Protein backbone atom coordinates (compact mmCIF):
# COMPACT_ATOMS: atom_id res chain seq x y z
CA UNK A 1 0.00 0.00 0.00
CA UNK A 2 2.81 2.39 0.95
CA UNK A 3 4.69 1.59 -2.25
CA UNK A 4 1.56 2.31 -4.33
CA UNK A 5 1.05 5.64 -2.56
CA UNK A 6 4.71 6.51 -3.07
CA UNK A 7 4.40 5.76 -6.80
CA UNK A 8 1.30 7.97 -7.00
CA UNK A 9 3.21 10.87 -5.36
CA UNK A 10 6.09 10.42 -7.78
CA UNK A 11 3.70 10.31 -10.77
CA UNK A 12 1.78 13.35 -9.53
CA UNK A 13 5.02 15.29 -9.02
CA UNK A 14 6.24 14.36 -12.49
CA UNK A 15 2.98 15.59 -14.02
CA UNK A 16 3.28 18.90 -12.17
CA UNK A 17 6.86 19.40 -13.38
CA UNK A 18 5.84 18.58 -16.93
CA UNK A 19 2.92 21.01 -16.78
CA UNK A 20 5.17 23.78 -15.41
CA UNK A 21 7.78 23.10 -18.07
CA UNK A 22 5.19 23.23 -20.86
CA UNK A 23 3.76 26.43 -19.42
CA UNK A 24 7.21 28.03 -19.25
CA UNK A 25 7.97 26.98 -22.83
CA UNK A 26 4.62 28.18 -24.21
CA UNK A 27 5.07 31.20 -26.45
CA UNK A 28 3.30 34.29 -25.22
CA UNK A 29 1.83 36.09 -28.19
CA UNK A 30 0.94 39.80 -28.51
CA UNK A 31 -2.54 40.82 -27.43
CA UNK A 32 -3.63 41.72 -30.99
CA UNK A 33 -3.41 38.09 -32.18
CA UNK A 34 -6.87 36.55 -32.70
CA UNK A 35 -7.57 33.44 -30.68
CA UNK A 36 -6.59 30.14 -32.22
CA UNK A 37 -3.92 31.35 -34.66
CA UNK A 38 -1.50 28.54 -35.47
CA UNK A 39 1.88 28.17 -37.14
CA UNK A 40 2.30 25.46 -39.76
CA UNK A 41 4.53 24.43 -42.66
CA UNK A 42 1.90 22.12 -44.15
CA UNK A 43 1.32 23.65 -47.60
CA UNK A 44 -2.45 23.25 -47.75
CA UNK A 45 -3.04 24.08 -44.11
CA UNK A 46 -0.92 27.23 -44.46
CA UNK A 47 -3.12 28.43 -47.34
CA UNK A 48 -6.31 27.68 -45.41
CA UNK A 49 -5.16 29.38 -42.24
CA UNK A 50 -3.84 32.38 -44.18
CA UNK A 51 -7.29 32.95 -45.62
CA UNK A 52 -8.96 32.46 -42.25
CA UNK A 53 -6.69 34.80 -40.33
CA UNK A 54 -7.16 37.53 -42.96
CA UNK A 55 -10.92 37.24 -42.49
CA UNK A 56 -10.48 37.40 -38.72
CA UNK A 57 -8.23 40.46 -38.68
CA UNK A 58 -9.14 42.59 -41.70
CA UNK A 59 -11.85 44.70 -40.00
CA UNK A 60 -9.68 45.42 -36.94
CA UNK A 61 -6.07 45.47 -38.12
CA UNK A 62 -6.24 46.75 -41.69
CA UNK A 63 -5.35 50.43 -41.93
CA UNK A 64 -7.96 51.77 -44.31
CA UNK A 65 -7.56 55.37 -43.22
CA UNK A 66 -4.54 57.67 -42.71
CA UNK A 67 -3.08 57.91 -39.23
CA UNK A 68 -1.12 60.54 -37.34
CA UNK A 69 1.64 59.18 -35.14
CA UNK A 70 2.95 61.80 -32.73
CA UNK A 71 5.45 62.35 -29.95
CA UNK A 72 3.12 60.52 -27.57
CA UNK A 73 3.51 57.24 -29.48
CA UNK A 74 5.58 54.83 -27.41
CA UNK A 75 9.19 54.56 -28.56
CA UNK A 76 11.71 51.94 -27.42
CA UNK A 77 15.41 52.44 -28.11
CA UNK A 78 17.19 49.12 -28.73
CA UNK A 79 20.85 48.15 -28.48
CA UNK A 80 21.11 47.45 -32.24
CA UNK A 81 23.28 49.73 -34.37
CA UNK A 82 21.71 51.00 -37.60
CA UNK A 83 23.59 52.15 -40.72
CA UNK A 84 20.80 51.44 -43.19
CA UNK A 85 20.06 54.96 -44.39
CA UNK A 86 21.82 57.88 -46.05
CA UNK A 87 21.45 59.72 -42.72
CA UNK A 88 23.36 57.27 -40.54
CA UNK A 89 25.36 55.29 -43.06
CA UNK A 90 28.68 56.44 -41.59
CA UNK A 91 27.40 57.45 -38.14
CA UNK A 92 25.58 54.51 -36.54
CA UNK A 93 22.49 55.23 -34.48
CA UNK A 94 20.47 52.87 -32.31
CA UNK A 95 17.38 51.29 -33.86
CA UNK A 96 14.18 52.73 -32.41
CA UNK A 97 10.96 50.71 -32.25
CA UNK A 98 7.97 53.02 -32.70
CA UNK A 99 4.54 51.79 -31.64
CA UNK A 100 2.43 54.33 -33.50
CA UNK A 101 -0.94 53.61 -31.91
CA UNK A 102 0.18 52.80 -28.38
CA UNK A 103 -0.10 55.74 -25.95
CA UNK A 104 0.65 55.76 -22.21
CA UNK A 105 -2.18 56.99 -19.97
CA UNK A 106 -1.94 58.75 -16.62
CA UNK A 107 -2.82 55.59 -14.68
CA UNK A 108 0.14 53.69 -16.18
CA UNK A 109 -1.98 51.68 -18.57
CA UNK A 110 -1.67 51.89 -22.34
CA UNK A 111 -4.31 52.84 -24.88
CA UNK A 112 -4.26 51.10 -28.27
CA UNK A 113 -6.15 52.45 -31.27
CA UNK A 114 -7.47 50.21 -34.06
CA UNK A 115 -9.56 51.16 -37.08
CA UNK A 116 -12.98 51.61 -35.50
CA UNK A 117 -11.97 50.66 -31.96
CA UNK A 118 -9.80 51.46 -28.94
CA UNK A 119 -8.80 49.31 -25.99
CA UNK A 120 -6.68 49.65 -22.88
CA UNK A 121 -3.96 47.13 -22.11
CA UNK A 122 -1.58 46.68 -19.20
CA UNK A 123 2.12 47.42 -19.10
CA UNK A 124 2.72 43.66 -18.96
CA UNK A 125 0.75 43.15 -22.18
CA UNK A 126 2.73 45.88 -23.90
CA UNK A 127 5.99 44.32 -22.71
CA UNK A 128 5.01 41.17 -24.61
CA UNK A 129 4.38 43.22 -27.76
CA UNK A 130 7.73 45.04 -27.50
CA UNK A 131 9.72 41.88 -26.72
CA UNK A 132 8.08 40.03 -29.59
CA UNK A 133 8.72 42.88 -32.07
CA UNK A 134 12.38 43.27 -31.14
CA UNK A 135 12.93 39.51 -31.22
CA UNK A 136 11.32 39.27 -34.63
CA UNK A 137 13.53 42.09 -35.94
CA UNK A 138 16.66 40.31 -34.72
CA UNK A 139 15.57 37.10 -36.45
CA UNK A 140 14.90 38.90 -39.73
CA UNK A 141 18.27 40.70 -39.57
CA UNK A 142 20.13 37.45 -38.88
CA UNK A 143 18.45 35.66 -41.81
CA UNK A 144 19.26 38.48 -44.24
CA UNK A 145 22.86 38.68 -43.04
CA UNK A 146 23.28 34.92 -43.50
CA UNK A 147 22.15 35.22 -47.12
CA UNK A 148 23.83 38.48 -48.17
CA UNK A 149 26.88 38.58 -45.87
CA UNK A 150 29.47 38.22 -48.65
CA UNK A 151 27.55 39.65 -51.61
CA UNK A 152 29.86 42.70 -51.83
CA UNK A 153 32.97 40.50 -51.87
CA UNK A 154 31.47 38.32 -54.61
CA UNK A 155 30.62 41.46 -56.63
CA UNK A 156 34.20 42.75 -56.36
CA UNK A 157 35.57 39.37 -57.43
CA UNK A 158 33.25 39.30 -60.44
CA UNK A 159 34.18 42.87 -61.40
CA UNK A 160 37.91 42.12 -61.24
CA UNK A 161 37.41 39.14 -63.54
CA UNK A 162 35.54 41.29 -66.06
CA UNK A 163 38.30 43.89 -66.04
CA UNK A 164 41.05 41.28 -66.29
CA UNK A 165 42.72 42.58 -63.12
CA UNK A 166 44.00 40.30 -60.33
CA UNK A 167 41.41 40.41 -57.55
CA UNK A 168 44.01 41.22 -54.89
CA UNK A 169 45.31 44.24 -56.83
CA UNK A 170 41.79 45.47 -57.56
CA UNK A 171 40.77 45.29 -53.90
CA UNK A 172 43.75 47.40 -52.89
CA UNK A 173 42.59 50.17 -55.25
CA UNK A 174 38.90 50.18 -54.35
CA UNK A 175 38.79 52.81 -51.63
CA UNK A 176 41.59 54.97 -52.93
CA UNK A 177 40.81 58.25 -54.78
CA UNK A 178 41.22 58.30 -58.54
CA UNK A 179 44.23 60.52 -59.42
CA UNK A 180 43.59 63.75 -61.28
CA UNK A 181 40.05 64.46 -60.02
CA UNK A 182 39.33 67.68 -58.15
CA UNK A 183 36.67 65.98 -56.03
CA UNK A 184 37.49 62.74 -54.25
CA UNK A 185 36.03 59.84 -56.20
CA UNK A 186 37.14 56.33 -55.28
CA UNK A 187 37.53 53.39 -57.62
CA UNK A 188 34.67 51.69 -55.76
CA UNK A 189 32.38 54.62 -56.56
CA UNK A 190 33.57 54.74 -60.18
CA UNK A 191 32.59 51.10 -60.64
CA UNK A 192 29.36 51.48 -58.58
CA UNK A 193 30.38 48.62 -56.31
CA UNK A 194 28.72 48.08 -52.92
CA UNK A 195 30.54 48.61 -49.68
CA UNK A 196 31.47 45.59 -47.52
CA UNK A 197 28.33 44.30 -45.83
CA UNK A 198 27.66 45.04 -42.16
CA UNK A 199 24.92 43.59 -40.01
CA UNK A 200 23.89 47.14 -39.15
CA UNK A 201 23.05 47.78 -42.82
CA UNK A 202 19.92 45.67 -42.35
CA UNK A 203 18.93 47.37 -39.10
CA UNK A 204 16.28 50.07 -39.64
CA UNK A 205 16.77 53.50 -38.14
CA UNK A 206 13.08 53.46 -37.19
CA UNK A 207 10.95 50.32 -37.18
CA UNK A 208 7.27 51.12 -36.80
CA UNK A 209 4.50 48.78 -35.73
CA UNK A 210 1.67 50.62 -37.41
CA UNK A 211 -1.07 50.42 -39.96
CA UNK A 212 -0.42 50.27 -43.69
CA UNK A 213 -2.71 50.79 -46.70
CA UNK A 214 -5.25 48.12 -47.50
CA UNK A 215 -3.77 44.78 -48.66
CA UNK A 216 -0.23 45.92 -47.82
CA UNK A 217 1.69 44.25 -44.99
CA UNK A 218 4.80 46.40 -44.86
CA UNK A 219 6.44 49.47 -46.40
CA UNK A 220 9.96 50.88 -46.58
CA UNK A 221 11.17 54.27 -47.80
CA UNK A 222 14.43 54.00 -49.73
CA UNK A 223 17.45 55.91 -48.35
CA UNK A 224 15.64 56.74 -45.08
CA UNK A 225 16.00 53.66 -42.89
CA UNK A 226 12.28 53.88 -42.01
CA UNK A 227 10.14 50.73 -42.16
CA UNK A 228 6.47 50.18 -41.37
CA UNK A 229 5.26 46.72 -40.40
CA UNK A 230 1.62 45.98 -39.66
CA UNK A 231 0.07 43.74 -36.97
CA UNK A 232 -1.40 41.68 -39.82
CA UNK A 233 2.12 41.10 -41.15
CA UNK A 234 3.20 39.85 -37.73
CA UNK A 235 0.40 37.28 -37.67
CA UNK A 236 1.25 36.21 -41.23
CA UNK A 237 4.92 35.74 -40.31
CA UNK A 238 3.89 33.73 -37.24
CA UNK A 239 1.71 31.49 -39.41
CA UNK A 240 4.55 30.83 -41.87
CA UNK A 241 7.13 30.43 -39.10
CA UNK A 242 9.61 32.91 -40.57
CA UNK A 243 9.72 36.75 -40.54
CA UNK A 244 9.40 36.98 -44.32
CA UNK A 245 7.53 40.29 -44.56
CA UNK A 246 10.02 42.01 -42.28
CA UNK A 247 12.97 40.47 -44.15
CA UNK A 248 11.53 41.80 -47.40
CA UNK A 249 11.25 45.33 -46.05
CA UNK A 250 14.75 45.20 -44.56
CA UNK A 251 16.20 44.46 -48.02
CA UNK A 252 14.41 47.60 -49.26
CA UNK A 253 15.77 49.50 -46.28
CA UNK A 254 19.40 48.43 -46.77
CA UNK A 255 21.04 51.31 -48.66
CA UNK A 256 23.88 48.98 -49.66
CA UNK A 257 21.39 46.86 -51.63
CA UNK A 258 18.73 49.34 -52.71
CA UNK A 259 18.86 53.09 -52.94
CA UNK A 260 17.30 55.87 -54.95
CA UNK A 261 17.87 56.79 -57.79
CA UNK A 262 19.62 53.51 -58.73
CA UNK A 263 16.42 51.70 -57.73
CA UNK A 264 14.60 52.85 -60.88
CA UNK A 265 16.89 50.59 -62.92
CA UNK A 266 15.72 47.21 -61.60
CA UNK A 267 12.83 45.37 -60.00
CA UNK A 268 13.29 46.25 -56.33
CA UNK A 269 10.24 44.22 -55.29
CA UNK A 270 11.41 40.96 -56.80
CA UNK A 271 14.92 41.49 -55.42
CA UNK A 272 13.52 42.09 -51.94
CA UNK A 273 11.56 38.85 -52.25
CA UNK A 274 14.86 36.94 -52.23
CA UNK A 275 15.49 34.96 -50.11
CA UNK A 276 12.27 34.97 -48.07
CA UNK A 277 9.88 33.68 -50.75
CA UNK A 278 12.17 30.66 -51.40
CA UNK A 279 12.47 29.42 -47.82
CA UNK A 280 11.07 25.89 -47.40
CA UNK A 281 8.55 27.00 -44.77
CA UNK A 282 7.06 29.72 -46.99
CA UNK A 283 4.34 27.85 -48.90
CA UNK A 284 2.53 30.97 -50.10
CA UNK A 285 4.59 33.52 -52.01
CA UNK A 286 6.19 31.61 -54.90
CA UNK A 287 2.84 30.22 -56.00
CA UNK A 288 0.54 33.15 -55.30
CA UNK A 289 2.37 36.48 -54.95
CA UNK A 290 2.38 38.90 -57.89
CA UNK A 291 6.07 39.70 -57.31
CA UNK A 292 6.94 36.06 -58.10
CA UNK A 293 5.40 36.02 -61.57
CA UNK A 294 8.70 36.13 -63.49
CA UNK A 295 10.14 33.36 -61.28
CA UNK A 296 7.15 31.14 -62.06
CA UNK A 297 7.56 31.90 -65.76
CA UNK A 298 11.26 31.02 -65.80
CA UNK A 299 10.84 27.89 -63.69
CA UNK A 300 8.27 26.74 -66.25
CA UNK A 301 10.81 27.25 -69.06
CA UNK A 302 13.84 25.71 -67.38
CA UNK A 303 12.45 23.29 -64.79
CA UNK A 304 9.27 22.18 -66.58
CA UNK A 305 6.87 23.05 -63.75
CA UNK A 306 3.55 24.05 -65.34
CA UNK A 307 2.00 26.40 -62.80
CA UNK A 308 -1.15 27.05 -64.84
CA UNK A 309 -1.82 23.34 -65.23
CA UNK A 310 -1.29 22.82 -61.51
CA UNK A 311 -3.86 25.51 -60.76
CA UNK A 312 -6.38 23.81 -63.04
CA UNK A 313 -5.83 20.46 -61.34
CA UNK A 314 -5.89 21.51 -57.70
CA UNK A 315 -8.53 24.28 -57.75
CA UNK A 316 -11.51 22.19 -58.76
CA UNK A 317 -14.58 24.35 -58.15
CA UNK A 318 -15.44 27.94 -57.30
CA UNK A 319 -18.76 27.98 -55.48
CA UNK A 320 -19.40 31.70 -55.35
CA UNK A 321 -15.91 32.42 -54.07
CA UNK A 322 -15.76 29.28 -51.90
CA UNK A 323 -12.95 27.17 -53.36
CA UNK A 324 -12.96 23.38 -53.48
CA UNK A 325 -9.35 22.16 -53.60
CA UNK A 326 -7.86 18.70 -54.14
CA UNK A 327 -5.81 18.61 -50.94
CA UNK A 328 -3.79 15.49 -51.77
CA UNK A 329 -2.77 16.74 -55.19
CA UNK A 330 -2.11 20.24 -53.81
CA UNK A 331 0.38 18.88 -51.27
CA UNK A 332 2.05 16.63 -53.85
CA UNK A 333 2.68 19.53 -56.24
CA UNK A 334 3.92 21.80 -53.50
CA UNK A 335 6.42 19.16 -52.46
CA UNK A 336 7.83 19.34 -55.99
CA UNK A 337 8.27 23.10 -55.77
CA UNK A 338 10.67 22.65 -52.84
CA UNK A 339 13.36 21.38 -55.20
CA UNK A 340 12.86 24.43 -57.45
CA UNK A 341 13.05 26.78 -54.47
CA UNK A 342 16.25 25.19 -53.15
CA UNK A 343 17.90 25.47 -56.55
CA UNK A 344 16.90 29.10 -57.09
CA UNK A 345 17.85 30.10 -53.55
CA UNK A 346 21.43 28.98 -54.20
CA UNK A 347 21.55 30.16 -57.84
CA UNK A 348 20.34 33.69 -57.10
CA UNK A 349 22.88 34.19 -54.32
CA UNK A 350 25.87 32.69 -56.12
CA UNK A 351 25.23 33.79 -59.74
CA UNK A 352 22.64 36.56 -60.09
CA UNK A 353 23.59 38.78 -57.13
CA UNK A 354 27.35 38.94 -57.91
CA UNK A 355 26.64 39.55 -61.60
CA UNK A 356 24.21 42.39 -60.94
CA UNK A 357 26.23 44.20 -58.27
CA UNK A 358 29.45 43.88 -60.24
CA UNK A 359 27.92 45.87 -63.10
CA UNK A 360 24.77 47.69 -61.97
CA UNK A 361 25.08 50.43 -64.61
CA UNK A 362 25.20 47.89 -67.45
CA UNK A 363 22.26 45.87 -66.16
CA UNK A 364 20.16 48.96 -65.48
CA UNK A 365 20.84 50.02 -69.06
CA UNK A 366 19.91 46.57 -70.34
CA UNK A 367 16.66 46.70 -68.39
CA UNK A 368 15.88 50.09 -69.91
CA UNK A 369 16.78 48.92 -73.41
CA UNK A 370 14.58 45.83 -73.15
CA UNK A 371 11.87 47.58 -71.11
CA UNK A 372 12.13 44.71 -68.66
CA UNK A 373 13.38 45.28 -65.13
CA UNK A 374 14.22 41.60 -64.76
CA UNK A 375 16.51 41.22 -67.78
CA UNK A 376 19.35 40.00 -65.60
CA UNK A 377 17.35 37.09 -64.20
CA UNK A 378 16.22 36.02 -67.67
CA UNK A 379 19.68 36.33 -69.24
CA UNK A 380 21.70 34.74 -66.44
CA UNK A 381 19.30 31.80 -66.17
CA UNK A 382 19.58 31.30 -69.93
CA UNK A 383 23.38 31.20 -69.55
CA UNK A 384 23.32 28.49 -66.88
CA UNK A 385 20.26 26.34 -67.66
CA UNK A 386 18.89 24.58 -70.73
CA UNK A 387 15.17 24.99 -71.44
CA UNK A 388 12.90 21.99 -70.94
CA UNK A 389 9.55 23.49 -71.88
CA UNK A 390 8.95 21.37 -75.04
CA UNK A 391 8.63 18.00 -73.37
CA UNK A 392 12.03 17.82 -71.66
CA UNK A 393 15.61 18.97 -72.23
CA UNK A 394 16.50 16.75 -75.20
CA UNK A 395 13.33 17.46 -77.18
CA UNK A 396 13.56 21.19 -76.49
CA UNK A 397 17.23 21.48 -77.49
CA UNK A 398 16.61 19.43 -80.62
CA UNK A 399 13.76 21.74 -81.67
CA UNK A 400 15.84 24.85 -80.92
CA UNK A 401 18.93 23.55 -82.72
CA UNK A 402 16.93 22.92 -85.90
CA UNK A 403 15.82 26.55 -85.89
CA UNK A 404 18.98 28.15 -84.52
CA UNK A 405 19.66 30.64 -87.33
CA UNK A 406 16.01 31.73 -87.54
CA UNK A 407 15.89 32.30 -83.78
CA UNK A 408 19.14 34.33 -83.82
CA UNK A 409 17.85 36.51 -86.69
CA UNK A 410 14.60 37.13 -84.82
CA UNK A 411 16.55 37.95 -81.66
CA UNK A 412 18.75 40.50 -83.48
CA UNK A 413 15.73 42.24 -84.99
CA UNK A 414 13.89 42.24 -81.66
CA UNK A 415 16.91 43.65 -79.83
CA UNK A 416 17.35 46.47 -82.37
CA UNK A 417 13.70 47.45 -81.99
CA UNK A 418 13.55 46.98 -78.22
CA UNK A 419 13.14 50.18 -76.26
CA UNK A 420 11.46 51.94 -79.17
CA UNK A 421 7.96 53.04 -78.15
CA UNK A 422 5.12 52.00 -80.41
CA UNK A 423 2.05 54.12 -81.13
CA UNK A 424 -0.30 54.19 -78.17
CA UNK A 425 2.09 52.26 -75.92
CA UNK A 426 3.21 53.20 -72.42
CA UNK A 427 6.28 52.28 -70.46
CA UNK A 428 4.87 49.67 -68.09
CA UNK A 429 7.87 49.94 -65.76
CA UNK A 430 7.33 53.67 -65.24
CA UNK A 431 3.56 53.33 -64.83
CA UNK A 432 3.69 50.37 -62.42
CA UNK A 433 1.44 51.14 -59.48
CA UNK A 434 1.55 49.71 -55.98
CA UNK A 435 -0.87 46.81 -55.45
CA UNK A 436 -3.06 48.69 -52.97
CA UNK A 437 -3.69 51.53 -55.50
CA UNK A 438 -4.67 49.01 -58.17
CA UNK A 439 -6.96 47.19 -55.72
CA UNK A 440 -8.67 50.42 -54.65
CA UNK A 441 -9.05 51.44 -58.31
CA UNK A 442 -10.80 48.16 -59.10
CA UNK A 443 -12.93 48.28 -55.95
CA UNK A 444 -14.22 51.81 -56.57
CA UNK A 445 -14.97 51.49 -60.29
CA UNK A 446 -16.92 48.96 -62.33
CA UNK A 447 -15.22 47.31 -65.35
CA UNK A 448 -17.36 49.51 -67.63
CA UNK A 449 -16.29 52.69 -65.83
CA UNK A 450 -12.62 51.67 -65.94
CA UNK A 451 -12.88 51.05 -69.69
CA UNK A 452 -14.63 54.40 -70.21
CA UNK A 453 -11.87 56.29 -68.41
CA UNK A 454 -9.10 54.37 -70.17
CA UNK A 455 -10.70 54.93 -73.58
CA UNK A 456 -10.99 58.66 -72.93
CA UNK A 457 -7.30 59.13 -72.16
CA UNK A 458 -6.23 56.69 -74.87
CA UNK A 459 -8.20 58.61 -77.50
CA UNK A 460 -7.21 62.05 -76.16
CA UNK A 461 -3.40 62.22 -75.93
CA UNK A 462 -3.49 65.92 -75.08
CA UNK A 463 -5.66 65.19 -72.04
CA UNK A 464 -2.91 63.04 -70.54
CA UNK A 465 -0.63 66.09 -70.47
CA UNK A 466 -3.26 68.64 -69.44
CA UNK A 467 -4.49 66.56 -66.51
CA UNK A 468 -1.21 67.20 -64.70
CA UNK A 469 -2.04 70.90 -64.50
CA UNK A 470 -5.53 70.46 -63.03
CA UNK A 471 -6.33 71.28 -59.42
CA UNK A 472 -7.61 68.60 -57.06
CA UNK A 473 -11.21 69.81 -57.44
CA UNK A 474 -10.90 69.88 -61.22
CA UNK A 475 -9.49 66.34 -61.20
CA UNK A 476 -12.37 65.10 -59.05
CA UNK A 477 -14.88 66.82 -61.34
CA UNK A 478 -13.25 65.29 -64.42
CA UNK A 479 -13.26 61.74 -63.10
CA UNK A 480 -16.83 62.01 -61.78
CA UNK A 481 -17.98 63.02 -65.26
CA UNK A 482 -16.03 60.18 -66.84
CA UNK A 483 -17.47 57.78 -64.25
CA UNK A 484 -21.02 58.90 -65.08
CA UNK A 485 -20.35 58.84 -68.80
CA UNK A 486 -21.00 62.55 -69.37
CA UNK A 487 -18.53 64.41 -71.65
CA UNK A 488 -15.97 66.30 -69.54
CA UNK A 489 -15.73 70.01 -70.02
CA UNK A 490 -12.17 70.34 -68.73
CA UNK A 491 -9.20 68.51 -70.20
CA UNK A 492 -9.47 67.34 -73.80
Fold and architecture overview:
The chain is an alpha+beta fold. The protein has 21 helices and nine strands. Strands 1, 2, 3, 4, 5, 6 and 7 form a seven-stranded mixed β-sheet that branches. A hairpin with a 2-residue loop joins strand 8 and strand 9 (322-325). Helix 2 (43-61) packs antiparallel against helix 7 (231-240) and helix 13 crosses helix 15. Residues 1-25 and 424-431 have low confidence and may be disordered.
Question: What's the topology here?
Answer:
Elements: H1 2-25, H2 43-61, E1 73-82, E2 93-104, E3 110-114, E4 117-121, H3 123-148, H4 151-163, H5 167-173, H6 187-190, E5 206-209, E6 218-221, E7 226-229, H7 231-240, H8 244-253, H9 268-272, H10 285-288, H11 293-303, H12 307-314, E8 315-319, E9 322-325, H13 327-358, H14 360-370, H15 375-384, H16 393-402, H17 404-417, H18 435-444, H19 447-459, H20 461-466, H21 472-484
Parallel strand pairs: 2-5, 5-7
Antiparallel strand pairs: 1-2, 2-3, 3-4, 6-7, 8-9
Helix pairs in contact: 2-7, 3-8, 4-13, 13-15, 19-21
